[in-house]
Structures are given as structure tokens and as C-alpha cells.
Amino acid sequence: MATGTPSVRWLGRTAVAMVLAAGAARSTLAQELPGSSRTTRLAAAAIYGTVTDSGSGQPLISADVQLVREGHVLVATTTSALGRYALRGLERGAYALEVRRLGFRPAAQRLDLADGDTTIDVVLVPAALTLDSITVMALSPVAVDARTGNQVFQQETYHGSPATTTSQTVQQALAGAARAPTGEVHIRGQHDEFTYYVDGIPIPPGISGSLSEVFSPAILDRMEFQTGGWDAEYGNRNTAVMHVDTRIPVGGAGVQGSLDAGSFGAAGLSLLASGNVGRLGVVSSVAQRVTDMWREPVMQAAGTGAPINFHNTGSDRYGFGKLQYAAGARDFITLDLSVSATQFEVPFDSTGGIRLDDRQHESNGFATLAWHHASGARPADGELFVGVYHRESALRYTPGVGEPPQFTFYPDTTQYNVSEDRTASTTGIKLDALLPSAGPLQVKTGFDASLVGAHEHFASLDAQGAAGPSVDAPVHGGDVGLYLQGSFQPSPFWELRPGLRYDVHTAPLAGSATQLSPRLRLNLFPSARTSLWLYYGRLFVPSPVEDFHVLASAGQGGQAGQPTYPERDHFFEVGLVHRWPGAGMSLKLDAYHKESTPGVDDNTLPGTAVTADVNVAKIRITGLESVLAVRPDGPLSGYLNVALSHASAHGPITGGFSPTAYPTGWYDLDHDQRLSIVGNLSYERRRWYAGATGIFGSGLTNGHPSAAVNGTGLFDFNAAVKVPPSFIVNASAGSTVRVLGRALRPAVFVDNLFNLHYVLKGAFTSGPSIGRPRTLLLRLDVDR
Predict the structure, then answer these.
(1) Over 80: is that where the pLDDT of 464 sits?
(2) Has residue 749 got a pLDDT over 90?
(3) What is the DSSP secondary-structure string of 742-756?
(4) Helix (H/G/I), strand (E/B), else coil: 506
(5) Could you tell me how far CA 497 lies from the centroid of its own chain?
(6) DSSP codes of every residue in 433-486
(7) CA distance 63 to 160
(8) What are phi and psi of 210, to 5 degrees?
(9) pLDDT at 659 (0 to 100)
(10) What is the pTM of this model?
(11) Which residue did the predictor score with more confidence, 202 or 21?
């Protein structure tokens, strides 16, 4: 892209403003750290250590480790799968090291950091289960990492509806995420360009068009969102990299159960059993949900706008098991197994007026095995990670009997019903090696390789039952990514993270595609409370291998048409995090710009739930984001996510079922919502809690992009092609009581508290969706 474009000039001005703000903060450093001389501040030191469970000796994953001076948290991190932590680039001087983990008593230790590295191992003691230890004070479920700017979601402090899916949790917790139909989430104006890393291993995407969740939110312990500044380690779908730590409850054998019921025939149950014996920990979880409103309705009453719900019953089933074993001080093994199945009716109708009788069945499963190995007694000696994974997914879509055909293969006008029966499996390996380090330099290298095998059976029939274009063929492909990542921090005040990645992608019809991608991030730490970063990354997003139904139009004889090619991006970002420790507040500001040539998107066949991935000649996304997390001492806490972005495209859409060269000019993507705001407030005191979440959206795309001349600026809202703005409030309240030695947690949840009528999305590209009406759920949790 040209460096002189308005968007990049604007991003440059934003970066300069943030650097100047950081410089002002830097000038106050001497007052913030009165015990430090300039000479000692300019030298860097490090603290390393391991955090373990006093009862079992197991390493504690995701324990919070903070370094405190003069009441200020200077730097914080979380422990790895080996229970290890590293705090680097520190000044010499006196500190307090504080370690916390839910279910354990906090630990603190004073230290005087002198020349060289210091090792401090911490043993945490499990806390007794009392009402006060269950709920003492409110903690917002969303926090901001002070060094990286990543948002962190903690399940234990989240009071969301049991019907909330993992995708909906992401939407409510992550700035720059917009609500989409069927519980999907659009992150920074894009569709499905994110990857879950479960216990350190990437979970490959399922079949394109799948609407079911990979796993139940019940297994979550902690989720960290990385939406920019990616190291070279991360490739593939990286608009958001979501690191998921699954949970094994503290203590011996125990059982937790939950039952809920509510509006529209909704009901759910879940059961989780766990145990820890010495160095071995296990957990298994099953869950099921049924409802008569699985998707958002697609029709509304004339005049009132009330949703009309029909043919919308669905069910979801989940199963998950995890085993973790600490083989010794230097080896840790985890095994995860997950299965899920979804069946739902499809009241989908892009043309209006026809209530269809379609059905869709989906199944998903994955298995991962990971080995973490420490090369020596000290974290600086290096680590090795090896993970293997396998993913299975299937999608079967069946149109209703006697359904009037609606789909045409442009430019032919013959109408067809279509059906889909698609399966796919992915097998891969991920290897990472953190090399032994000395001084300020760290180097990490590794690779991620996967093979995809699939079968595509797509068929079409006209009104007389005659066969139209179809595909019935095996599919093979895969990806390989190699990377080298460095970290250089000679001073407490700055860090440089250069990286290089090489990707190879092979897909049907498209052949092989490669890209060498440089990454560079500069971190500045001008004060104990302020972090600033600037980033450039070349990104490579593979197209879905299993998405094979690239049929040409009937005018081309039904032959295979143009495939979908990988997305190639230039990504720029500048960000700032500032903390007010006394108030328990953190503020993140972020500006980004991405150019894709080409981009990857998808569209839905009218009258079906079948999607096809397509290429867009050029996509341009520019945005501003802010996160305010408030977690003070006391019963109140909350957070506010505000995101302003513009996702626009130019040029033809090709591949899939799209007509060639349509549309032209600049237009908003159907994932584009200019302004997204999510605010949460929680009150928690001893046995009681109450909370509310407000969700505002300025409106997704409503209709054909040529309905108005689209402005391309960040503040061009293009209201003529957007649905009206919406604002809904979700609320919850509950308590904890002890009965016969067990903890009982009754709770009530209300979504769309004021029962507002609104359109979530218009008919452009995929079809309309009407906002869900007010729903009520009652839940009872029972712990061992």
C-alpha cells in the first residue's frame, strides 16, 4: 500500500500523539519511583520462578504474578503450563512480589533486586471453602494486561446467562467485536478470522458455514484475547488469537452440577466432575441445551416490529475431558478431548414471505496432546513445547420436502433447491523451542504443520426434480508455517520484538501459495504506569481447504470455477495502556489499519444455511478502540469497551457462487458496524451479586451496497445502507448459600431486559435477522 494514503497518514498522526503522551509520562518517572537513582534505573534485571500447589505439587497455570513498588503494580504476568513465570527488563531496587490464584491463599514476598537474575519459587496453599471465600467482593470479568495491552476474560468472575455461547462471551468481553446473527461474532469488521488456542494448542477451524460452538463455555477458566501486535509464532486466522485455559477445580474429588429453564422452551443442564491425586489432575464435563429459538428470527410483524418465531427449534450437546500430569519439575503433559453436536431447524428466507422447513446437523470434535519440557532448572535455560492435534467436523443441510426452489446459478434463471453433506478432518503438529537466553536477548523458533482431508457432496434439484450443478469429490490440502521470533530488552524502558514467518498453503484448485511475513513490535515503558507499542505485521490468512463447492455459473456449463485464494495483509497498529493503581483502573487506547489484497469473506446461498467462501479484490479496515477496566477494592466493578471501525471493500467478489465482477466501487462489508459499545457493571458483596451489561450497536449492513454512495472515512456512517442502531440490556442476580456442606447458587438472568424490538442485520449477502425478544432463565448451581 502507498505510505501516503489518508488512513496511514492519520495512523501516523495518532502514533505521534501517543508517543508525545508517553514522553510526558516519562518525565514524571523520578517522582513515581523516589527510591531509584538514574544510574540503577538504566540497568535491567530479571526475576524468574515457579508457582506450585502445596498439596499436590502440581504447577499452577495462569497464576497472577505481580511486582509491586510504592503501592504501584510495575509489571505483571501469568504462569505458563509449567507453572513458570519471568519478569524481565526490571530496575534494581526493593520490591514486593505478589502471587494470586483463585482457590488459593495469596502469597507475598519482599525482595531487593541487585545485579544479575533472581529466582523466587512460590508455593500456594489452597484456601478453605467458605461463603466468604466464594464471593467476597466484585471483580470485573475483563481486565487489561499492562504490558501487552491484551484483554483478559476470567470465567469465575463472569455472571452471564447459561444460554450464552462462547462466541457471545467473546463479543461481550472484547473491544471491536460486534454481535452477529446466530450468536456469531464479527471482530474488527471481519468474519470468522480468529483462532482458539486451547491449553496452548491451536484448534483448526471447522467446516465453513458451521454455526455450532467448538466447546461449551463451562470449561473455561481464563481467556486472553490478542487482536494485534502478534509475534511471528501466530499465523492462519489471526484477527484475534484467543488463548483458552481450561479448568480443573482445586482440591480432591468433586462434582458440580447446574440446571436451568426459561423462555421459549429453553432448558439446560451441565455436570462437571474433577479430581486431583498427587501430580495427576482430571476433569470431565457434559452439557446440553434445548430451545425453541435457536437462531434469531428472520421475520417481524408489520407495524410493531415484534419478532415472529417459527420453525426454530434446536439443541446443543457438549462433552469435554482433560487430564494433566506433572511428570516432574521439568515436564508437564496435558490431554484434551472434546465433542459437540448441534441439530437445528433453519427458518432462513432471504427473499421474504416463505417459511422454510430446512434442517441442519453439525458435529465437531478435537483431541490434543501437549508436552511441556524445561531444558534446565532456570526458566532462562529454555523450554520445549510439542503438541499434536486432530479435528473432526461435519455439516449436513437438508431442504424441506416440497420446498419451492429459490437459488439460481447466475446468469441462468433456473431455480434450484440445494443440499449439503460435508465432512472434514485436520491433523497437525505444533513445535516451539524457547532457546537458552543470556542477558536481554531471547529467541524462540518453531513450526505448525497440518493436513486436511475432506469430502464435499453438494447437490441441487430444480422444481421438477432434475439435477443441477453438483460436486461429489474428496478434498485434500494443508498448511505449514515456520517462524523465528526475537525479544531484545536491554533497558527497563523499551523492548524490540522482531520476527519472521514463512507460510505454505495448499488448497483444491488454487494450488500452492507462499508468503514471507516480517513482524516488528516496539514496546516503550516510559513510566511504571504506562506502556506504549507500535507494530507492523505482514499477515497471511489461508482460505478454508474443505470449502470446495466452487461451482461456476450455469452459463459456464457447471464446471469448477475460480477458487478462493489466501488473504494477504499489511497491518499497522499503535497502542497505549495506562493504569491508576490507587483507583484500580486501567485504560487501553488502540488505533489500527489493515489493507487486504485480496481479502477473504463468505456469502450465504439465498433460502439456505449453506455458505461459500469468496475473495474480495481489496479490503480496507481502520479503527479506534478503547477499554476501561475498573476493579477497585469494594463491591463495585465494571468495564467499558468502545470501538469505532470501518470495514470497506473495493472491486469484484469472486469464487464460491458469486457472479463475476460484482459489485464495483467501494462498499461496506456486511460485517461492518461503525460503533460498538459494551458496558458492564457488577455488584458483589459476600453472598449476593447483581450485574448488568449494556450492548449498543450502530447497525450492520441492511441492503444492497449501491443503495447509497458510500463514504470511506472512519466517521462516514453510511446510514442509508445500515439497519437502525440498537441498545439492549442484559441483567443477572444471584446468591450463594451452604446446605449440608454444599454450595448452592440460585440465579436469574434476563436478556433484552426492556424487550426492545430491533433488526440485527439486513438481507445483504446472508439474509435478515431480527433481534431476540426478552428472555428469562432461572439457574441453580450445586457444588460438591
Answers:
(1) yes
(2) yes
(3) EEEEEEEEEESTT--
(4) strand
(5) 23
(6) EE---BTTEEEEEEEEEEEEEEEEEEEEEETTS-B-S-EEEEEEEEEEEEEEEE
(7) 23
(8) -65, 140
(9) 57
(10) 0.85
(11) 202
